[in-house]
Description:
Blueprint: E1 13-19, E2 25-31, H1 33-42, E3 46-49, E4 54-57, E5 66-73, E6 80-86, H2 108-121, H3 128-134, H4 137-155, H5 160-180, H6 185-196
Parallel strand pairs: 1-6
Antiparallel strand pairs: 1-2, 3-4, 5-6
Helix pairs in contact: 2-3, 2-5, 4-5
Amino acid sequence: MKIDFKKYADGLVPAVVQDYNTAKVLMLGFMNEEALQTTEQTGLVTFFSRSKGRLWTKGEESGNHLQLRQMLVDCDNDTLLIKAEPTGPVCHTGADTCWSERNHKDDFLYYLEDIIRLRRSSNDETSYVHKLFGKGINKIAQKVGEEAVEVVIEAKDVNRDLFLGEAADLLFHYLILLQAKDCSLQDVIAVLKQRHQPK
């Protein structure tokens, strides 16, 4: 991979970071040759911080690192696409991406999944999600079962709004259960795609 660091006067090239699993755009940083080498050697995405004037590994203070999975260069050899797995919120605001909800216009379930992840790791005792995780896997599984029964009951009725409300409750708690089992929506989609392949 050849990168033209001399194209820009400051020797920095833009590095767009994309979630390896969901393809969501997470952030934009800048790399010089040393930042690129450090990223390749450590497996942790490292930039050159223009404000700090030094190398900066994402998550060096917060612990929310970006684990390198793939690195690509564009056709002009002057812009990088970094595919990485985030270990926590990416934006300094606490959002999962630096574009917040705008990046989830067509991926609301992934956005909701990220919100659940944030609530789980928070210390907010008023958060329903945080409290539910605190009660353990048995309570979470029981809640999914209760919501599933309520969906079945409403399915036998003719009230569309009530049915959709219960369906939304079930889907929400299903996403919680997935995270409690250290799985993701993307994992489930991968299984469905595998089953869908022609034999």
